[in-house]
Amino acid sequence: MPLFIPFSWVSAQDRCGIVEYTQNLRNTNTLKENDQSFEDWLNKKISSRKALRTNEANKAYRVPVVVHVIHKGEAIGTGVNISDAQIISQIRVLNEDFKRANADSVNTPAEFQSLAGKFNVEFVLAKQDPNGVATTGINRVKGTKTTWASSDDTTLKALSYWAAEDYLNIWVTDLSSTLLGYAQFPISTLSGLESAVDNRLTDGVVIDYTTFGSNDDGSF
User: Fold this and answer.
1) Is residue 41 part of a domain?
2) In the chain, how many domains are there?
3) CA distance 156 to 165
4) Per residue of the chain (220 residues), what is the pLDDT tens digit?
5) Which string of DSSP letters, residue by residue, matches 1-45?
6) Which domain holds residue 85?
7) CATH number for the domain including 6?
């Protein structure tokens, strides 16, 4: 989540909503992962990957992204209905962060200098929609509410959703200044990890429109 949020906004709004959102999923029996099992698995995987680094280190894995702009009927570039340029700027910043090409990487604390490196994932706006039709990867939908909360998650995402197996879904909307955004933990079928129930239709990231995009290119 922090990769999507301009630093200057962190103190102005409350928080990342993932803790509250995850607890809501647990309360409705739609999330059954064992957090400690996940952490144990992840630590083992990190150790094994360090031992298996190969010449594939420079290969980038491309992740198709669809940005669903859930607006209030405004003209494009106005209010919640943010401009294409603002969306593109966020994808650029996200890739810079993952590649450690961001300008402030020089401020990495000394104790982490030897550990920091680029993550070979590239996020790209989708070129085809689920029906194979050409797209910009930006999907604009007029919402049914003026503001949204994490408790509205299922209703919000039902307005516009592309299969999580094929796309990273990002919903940009008005979270009424109560949240910067939130996401859910990924589904897992790995041995030792319990998978979530019926959460593919909500898999993705939700972000407030005022925190999506770079300060230079955004319409904040």
Assistant:
1) no
2) 1
3) 19
4) 444 544 334 444 456 666 666 666 666 654 445 556 667 777 777 777 666 655 555 677 999 999 999 999 999 999 999 999 999 999 999 999 888 888 888 888 888 888 887 888 999 999 999 999 999 999 999 999 999 999 999 999 999 999 999 999 999 999 987 789 999 876 666 665 555 555 788 999 999 999 999 877 655 5
5) -GGGS-GGGTTTS--B-HHHHHHHHHHTT-----HHHHHHHHHHH
6) 2-34+57-211
7) 3.40.390.10
